[in-house]
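The material for today's practical consists of a large collection of protein records. A record pairs a protein's sequence with a compact description of its fold. Instead of coordinates, the fold is spelled out as a row of discrete tokens. We will come back to this pairing of sequence and fold again and again. Here is such a record, shown just as it appears in the course material.
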Amino acid sequence: MLRKLIASGVFALFMMGLVACSGGDSEEQSPAKSDIASEAISESAGIEIAPALGGDVTAVPEASASTGDKFGGKLRVLGGDPPTLDPALVSDTASARIVLELFSGLVRLDNALQIVPDLAETWVVTEEGTVYTFTIKDGAQFSDGTPVTASDFKYAMERAANPDTESTVAELYLADIVGVMEIIDGEAVTTSGIEVLDDKTLKITIDAPKAYFLAKLTYPTAFALMKSNVESGGQTWTDNPIGSGPFILEEYRIGERMILARNENYYARNAYLDTVEINLAGGVAMAMYEADEIDLTGVGLADLDRVQDPSNAINRDLVSVPPGFSTSYLGFNIEETPFNDVKFRQALAHSIDKELIAEQVFAGLVLPAEGVLPPLFPGFNDDLVSLDFDPDKARALLAESSYSTLTDRDKRIVITTQGTGGSPSLSIEVMADMWNQNLGVTVEIQQVEFATYLQDLYRNRLQAFFGGWEADYPDPQDWIDILFHSESPRNDGNYSNPEVDRLVEQARTEQDVVLRTQLYQEAEQMIIDDVAWLPVWWDTQGLALIKQRVQDYNFLPMTIEIFKDVWIQE
């Protein structure tokens, strides 16, 4: 899903990778990107990565306490207003972080990023791999005590697919289910592909065996919804949502604060915290942390030296944060001039010095991105051939392109980025300056509020855009297929390559992991060669400050539910 790149407080830890721990002799041979990321995650706080995703890790030392002693207290964080709290509409990390605390699905990702039961007790898959039968847990209930039934899942998924809901993500995560596309296209309102056998049993039939399908059910579009709650509340039903997650929405004042309270009717062990208080009014995170107004924050460059000083009392609060499974990139609307010329896009790519940006703009705290998939992510290709910084080649490609024949109007380039007020990100300004110095190409930078950015992006109103993508589930399909297949609704740059389409379509049903990975890697190389995206950087290991009284707060490389296990040591 799209990352909110302009963020504050704890959410910035996951969205921006604020500070990384780098080092080593510059004369030594550079390690592979996957090795760098693996080392960063293996030394990070509070995360277990399954062997397929990187091996063992060391967790943060934990205080010991009996389960009963853990209940109570509040966690205070600094955040931003989510664009939506409707599971059917979630398309960004800011929204997902809250929705995942309020609602539950059939399955979820655990801290090791493995698929585990959520509201489903068990599931059975037919031998041909197209029919999934789920049994709902005894005791599964909404926050008002109403039992969760199979019908609540059918309602939620069919509602997400209904055109009246205006979901931009339903097709991405539900279209594998038989009959869902007919609902999306307005040709039906229900489907036999989602069948309620009884209150406890749900059968889902997909159009072909797909290794990633179960992972898609961890996305909010498949979360259980109470029909009466949604329909009685109308357009404002999320003001008082009744979910089945570990927390309930106790209070929400836009631009001021949000309070999540423990769901006393949660089907599993209740959350330890009484409340999570999210400050939405803004502020200087470090100052708020030192004034004991919030319990955790990312560390910015300006504060790096002093927080790493062992003689500074704040140093004891310092913890490592694993790199996120995310990529920051420049996107182009390939149907608009001058980006409809591949040689022009290649010229732009070869004129960007990503190493300089990483070392001088970010002080070595990010990695230059060479491809779409981030290091350590399943399917990452250490042998991918990137379009390296080469000003001479860039100028030659520009000369071969149609750019010089365009009118001044058609040469105009506007890059849209998230943000309001102040100066745009220095990294974007530096890239614009590189294009101007190396190619003579002039770029304008436009900042818009995050919700507006999302709306304009999804409606293909942007000529060029700076963004970030964070994995929804640990499978390359979530990147290569969802973002670059010509018919994908999340193909925001209108990229179209029949050979890429063929490869990802073949990968959808390929059951051999090695062959499937090869298909995605071959497609990724074509995507990079075509400059459908211009990947700029990947996050590396970050640093955060967290109060000593906060226990079992897990920093993870993906957005999943995290507050349930946190407790306060008084």
Q: What stands out?
A: The two ends are 37 Å apart (CA to CA). Residues 6-63 have pLDDT under 50 and may be disordered. Residues 367 and 538 are 5 Å apart (CA to CA).
